[in-house]
Amino acid sequence: MKTGVLCIHGFTGGPYELQPFVDYLQTNTDWKIAVPTLPGHGEILSLKKLTAENWMMAAEQTLRQLQKEVDRVFVIGFSMGGIIAIYLALRYKIDKLVLLSAAAKYIYPTQLIHDVREITKEAVAGKLEENPLFRLYSQKLRDTPIHAAFEFMRLVRMVEPYYGLISIPVCLVQGKKDGIVPFTTAPFLFEHITSKKKELIFSETGKHHICYSDDCSDWFSQTLSFLRQD
C-alpha cells in the first residue's frame, strides 16, 4: 500500500516549520511527502488581500493531487496548519491526523499580532547569527497585515464548531513551553475530538515551533509509531 503524507505549515510560516520532522519521515519511511507553501507565505510574506479560503483551497488542491498518487493519506498540520488539517478531514477521506501545536482556540486579533512578534522573539533567542530561523522571522514583523490576522482568526472560527465530528485516528503533540498556543489547547482538542483512537504527546521542552524542540527525536519516534499502527 502506497502512503502519502500532506504536511501543512502555520500562519506566516512555510515548509521550514515542519522540515525537521519531514526529514525524519523521509529517512525512516518510503512515503510520498507533500509540503506545499500556502498562498502569501514562505520566506517572503505577501499576505495582503488573501483570505482563509485561499489557504484552505491550496491545501485541498495538494491533497487531491496526492490522493491520486497514493492509496492512503496522512495529514500533518502545524499551528494554523492543524486547523486546516481538521477542515480537510471533515471533507475528504484521510486515514490519520497529526496535529502539532494546533491553534485551535479563539485568538483575539490584537493578541495575534502580539503573538507574531513573540514568535520572532522565540526564534531569535540567543545569538542571532547562529540561529537558523532568524533570517526567516526578522522580516515577518513588518510583513503581517492586520487583515491576515483577522483571516486566521476567521479560519479558526469556521472550523471550531466541527471538532467533535473528527472520528479518524488523531495524534496531538504540544510543547509545554509554548508561548503562542495555550498549553491547554491540546487537552481541549483531545477532549472534543470523538475519535476512538487518539493520542496526546507532550514535549517537555517544546515551544511553539515544536519541530525544533530539544526533545523532538522523542516525539518524532512516538508519532511515527502512531502512524504505522494498523
TrEMBL record:
InterPro entries per UniProt? AB_hydrolase_fold (IPR029058), AB_hydrolase_sf (IPR050266), Esterase_lipase (IPR012354), Hydrolase_4 (IPR022742)
Pfam family of this protein, just one?
A: Hydrolase_4
Binding residue positions for substrate: 11, 80
Annotated keywords: Hydrolase, Membrane, Transmembrane, Transmembrane helix
**Which residues, if any, are the signal sequence?**
none
An annotated Gene Ontology molecular function: carboxylic ester hydrolase activity
Task: Write out the catalytic residues in the record.
Answer: 79, 178, 208
Task: Kindly list any coiled-coil regions of this protein.
Answer: none
- A single cellular component GO annotation: membrane
Residues annotated as transmembrane: 73-90
- According to the entry, every stretch annotated as the Serine aminopeptidase S33 domain falls at 5-211
Which PANTHER family does the protein's record reference? AB HYDROLASE SUPERFAMILY PROTEIN YCLE, MONOACYLGLYCEROL LIPASE
Protein name as annotated: Alpha/beta fold hydrolase
